[in-house]
């Protein structure tokens, strides 16, 4: 059964699509809303402190060096990687100094993995939550969780895994549910996080306390869950293992904190 593959559509930045309307939210009684007042005061105090610190500090200059090297390898284990397309939408919407590295990997045994790096420039608009882009491409996020990836160095990389679904129509007009896993994380200088919110907190802390800005990179790996697409396909657990094993091998080739010392300094 032939299925049009989502591999033909890169899963990096694209305009956010419309999301379902939120359900009505019941209004809590005044006494139940008291904690929110304190939270608002706390947020105001933090914002005031940040603003004053920024006012009295000299301008911030983004560091030239990032936490990644923008060059994905051609070979990763049994995989051969072809250069992936950077879409017109990405080039049009993202800042001109955004950098990309993208390859589609295949092991000639029916296993395909997309790997992408998006590196911000002086502006931070290049880096965003991927959930909005995935929804805009027709995917539904059915589950998400953080997963640990043991690296060859002995370190543990924590990444966010999104479980995706979307409906496609095959050449014989059969409707098929296509499932996939999308794993991503953010890389700064000597720091990684799977959380967009934590990335912002780290950026603000370094901006205020250390007067420096992170040049963040957004890393993603993607693969279809194929057990319902072909007889020898992989189920969800096997696909997670496939992606984490691939990440374990490819991370030391571009992530400076995991590279051999002589490579990380280049």
What does this entry look like structurally?
Strands 1, 2, 3, 4, 5, 6, 7, 8 and 9 form a nine-stranded antiparallel β-sheet that branches. 29% of the residues are buried. With 266 residues, the protein is an alpha+beta fold. The chain has one domain (63-264). Residues 1-35 and 53-57 have low confidence and may be disordered. It is built from six helices and nine strands; from the N terminus they run H-E-E-H-E-E-H-E-E-E-E-H-E-H-H. The protein is globular, with a radius of gyration of 21 Å. The protein has helices at residues 34-56, 88-93, 130-136, 196-210, 236-254, 261-264; strands at residues 75-76, 79-83, 99-106, 112-119, 140-150, 156-169, 175-188, 191-193, 217-225.
What is the fold's blueprint, element by element?
Layout: H1 34-56, E1 75-76, E2 79-83, H2 88-93, E3 99-106, E4 112-119, H3 130-136, E5 140-150, E6 156-169, E7 175-188, E8 191-193, H4 196-210, E9 217-225, H5 236-254, H6 261-264
Antiparallel strand pairs: 1-2, 2-3, 3-4, 4-9, 5-6, 6-7, 7-8, 7-9
Instruction: Give the low-pLDDT segments.
Output: 1-35, 53-57
Number of domains: 1
Number of helices: 6
- What is the rounded Rg? 21 Å
Given the C-alpha coordinates, what overall shape results? globular
The helix content, as a percent range, equals 25-40%
SSE run: HEEHEEHEEEEHEHH
